[in-house]
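Thread amino acids onto this structure.
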């Protein structure tokens, strides 16, 4: 196994603090003399969905001991030209998990030449999320001993995005095309934060409803939060929106008042939207309402444009019916009520804007509430 100090030395060699290791190829995980392509990384952070290494143009021939540890990755038959040639490169690709943005701050590698006939020049390029390939660094060496090379990078991917690094080797001697280049310790460093790092999500029940509180530790391009509520933890509906601060590396505290919670347990989640339109959901949190209202009918929101939530009286029978009547006394529609649920949800799409009377009838009892249908 490769000693720990190898990677530590390479990271310490970089000029500055570049974050954490995102993906590393030490090639100590190879199980055959000639590695199968693509080659998986020896290490990838928890925010990386996948990563791989492969070769184009040159020949994949084996994994001899070259720089550090027991394995490296050897290739040959590189171009003899004095500058890099399109189509002849080693390629290292990383893909972030959905919701994670990669900030790659450093790319480094080691390589050695098997003889004086091996390629002497190299050029490193990068691209991300389909951007134009850009030269990161270039250099040359005539030594056959192992050396480390690297440069800071300005890569910032989209959420769930990807980044590609290519190493072009060239300047191979025409008389020794079989001489090899042996790369080792490919290193990508940086961070892969979620667009919004949520550290707290809680609710306080009181006479006026349930106040939700949440805190973010950091934000990147955060546009807004939509607050969603459910009576069963399965079907959620939007009940409000809170604007995000956009970008922050300091804690940000948010709050939202649900003035009309369901009686009993309410389920909430946050739908965070970034400036690219990507939506990321929080975990579901459940809070019990302090509402003890049982003697009548409550409707909310009021006015409503598309859907009305109706809190029903306690103790209804299976004969209970809900009616909606126009201000002129004309019945609009009627529906049966399930007495096992304290909430009913009424679609108002087919009603014209105006005032209506909502009536709940159960045998000899009845309850009324005035409802305003707003224009959409």
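Threaded sequence (376 positions):
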């Amino acid at each position: 196994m490769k000693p720990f100090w190898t990677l530590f030395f390479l990271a310490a060699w970089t000029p500055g603090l570049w974050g954490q290791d995102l993906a590393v190829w030490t090639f100590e995980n190879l199980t055959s003399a000639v590695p199968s392509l693509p080659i998986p990384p020896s290490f990838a952070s928890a925010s990386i969905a996948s990563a791989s290494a492969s070769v184009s143009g040159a020949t994949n021939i084996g994994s001899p001991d070259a720089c550090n540890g027991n394995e490296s990755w050897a290739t040959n038959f590189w171009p003899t030209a004095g500058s890099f040639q399109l189509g002849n490169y080693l390629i290292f690709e990383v893909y972030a998990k959905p919701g994670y943005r990669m900030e790659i701050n450093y790319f480094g590698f080691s390589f050695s030449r098997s003889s004086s006939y091996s390629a002497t020049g190299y050029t490193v390029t990068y691209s991300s999320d389909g951007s134009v390939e850009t030269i990161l660094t270039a250099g040359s060496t005539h030594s056959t001993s192992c050396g480390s090379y690297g440069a800071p990078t300005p890569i910032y991917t989209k959420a769930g995005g990807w980044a590609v690094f290519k190493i072009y080797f060239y300047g191979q001697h025409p008389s020794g095309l079989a001489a090899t280049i042996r790369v080792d310790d490919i290193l990508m460093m940086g961070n892969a934060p979620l667009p919004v790092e949520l550290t707290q999500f809680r609710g306080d029940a009181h006479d006026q409803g349930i106040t939700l509180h949440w805190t973010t530790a950091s934000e990147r391009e955060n546009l807004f939060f939509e607050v969603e509520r459910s009576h069963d933890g399965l079907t959620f509906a939007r009940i409000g929106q809170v604007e995000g601060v956009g970008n922050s590396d300091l804690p940000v505290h948010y709050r939202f008042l649900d003035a009309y919670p369901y009686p009993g347990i309410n389920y909430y989640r946050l739908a965070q939207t970034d400036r690219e339109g990507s939506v990321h959901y929080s975990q579901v949190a459940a809070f019990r309402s302090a509402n003890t209202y049982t003697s009548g009918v409550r409707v909310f929101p009021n006015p409503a444009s598309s859907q009305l939530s109706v809190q029903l009286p306690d103790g209804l029978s299976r004969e209970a019916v809900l009616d909606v009547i126009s201000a002129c006394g004309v019945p609009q529609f009627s529906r049966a009520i399930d007495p096992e649920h304290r909430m009913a949800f009424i679609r108002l799409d087919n009603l014209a804007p105006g005032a209506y009377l909502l009536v709940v009838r159960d045998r000899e009892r009845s309850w009324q509430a005035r409802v305003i249908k707003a224009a959409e």
